[in-house]
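Researcher: Sequence recovery benchmark, item below. Answer with residues only.
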């Protein structure tokens, strides 16, 4: 299992940026996706040797100025910039996770009230280890038939996704869904978080290479929005747009909302939840 999260993230960023995005010609015979190390190093004002050490994990303490230079060259989003600085901070000796040693499973009444207002949309409150703590009836109608909620709440989504065969049948793009689950678990310096580390140890044993190879290569920055496909056991094919709404840092929780991404999915969700047609409107995704 790799512990070079900063280097993995930097390399992934470099390989995701096309030369044209930073004003460079693509050129013939490029053997690497995105930018070459020499190109990023030159643009960021560092040596190729130094960038190589960072990506390989032989140097884990870049200055804030160097990180900001990479961020500018790669045109990182605010979330990516924060994540990059957190990974560098997490590599410092003595760093400890600021989260509680116990999972926060208490959802505050105002958050429950917000969740209630999100109905009939499928929406749920999650904590940092992927447990569903509370949800709308729409979420129960959507995820109940998949087996995710068989044990009641709290229900650990990553554990279900990697260990329940039904999850692969539900998600035609299971590989991508699994990648997102890993990215969510790996947010920030996750190895110093005893709760996340314990779950990772369990899933490394239970799910084997399907889990561990992703853990070693996927950056810990999940998409906050997107579209997911489902082959629902009762509603059939669905396309759902999702939005992640982060709560206060003290809550250590977030809400995820699903909305139909097309008219067919909207009609299927209405039937699934027993609502009148048009109860959920399709959104473009």
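Model:
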């Amino acid at each position: 299992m790799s512990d070079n999260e900063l280097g993995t993230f930097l390399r992934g960023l470099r390989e995701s940026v096309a030369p044209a995005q930073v004003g460079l010609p693509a050129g013939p015979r490029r053997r690497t996706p995105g930018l070459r190390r020499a190109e990023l190093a030159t643009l960021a004002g560092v040596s190729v040797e130094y960038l190589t050490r960072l990506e390989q994990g032989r140097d884990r303490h870049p200055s804030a100025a160097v990180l900001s230079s990479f961020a500018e060259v790669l045109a990182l989003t605010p979330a990516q910039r924060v994540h990059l600085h957190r990974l560098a901070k997490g590599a410092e000796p003595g760093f400890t996770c600021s989260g509680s040693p116990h999972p926060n499973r208490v959802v505050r009444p105002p958050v429950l009230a917000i969740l209630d207002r999100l109905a009939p949309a499928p929406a749920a409150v999650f904590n940092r280890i992927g447990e569903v703590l509370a949800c709308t009836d729409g979420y129960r109608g959507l995820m109940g038939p998949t087996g995710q909620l068989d044990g009641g709440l709290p229900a650990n989504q990553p554990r279900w996704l990697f260990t329940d065969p039904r999850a692969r049948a539900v998600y035609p793009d299971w590989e991508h869904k699994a990648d997102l689950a890993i990215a969510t678990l790996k947010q920030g310096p996750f190895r110093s978080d005893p709760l996340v580390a314990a779950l990772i140890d369990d899933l490394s044993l239970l799910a084997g290479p399907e889990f561990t190879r992703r853990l070693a290569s996927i950056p810990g920055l999940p998409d906050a929005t997107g579209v997911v496909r489902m082959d629902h056991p009762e509603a059939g094919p669905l396309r759902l747009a999702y939005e992640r709404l982060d709560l206060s840092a003290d809550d250590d929780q977030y809400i995820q909302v699903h909305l139909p991404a097309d008219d067919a999915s909207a009609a299927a969700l209405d039937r699934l939840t027993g609502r009148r047609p048009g109860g959920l409107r399709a959104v473009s995704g």
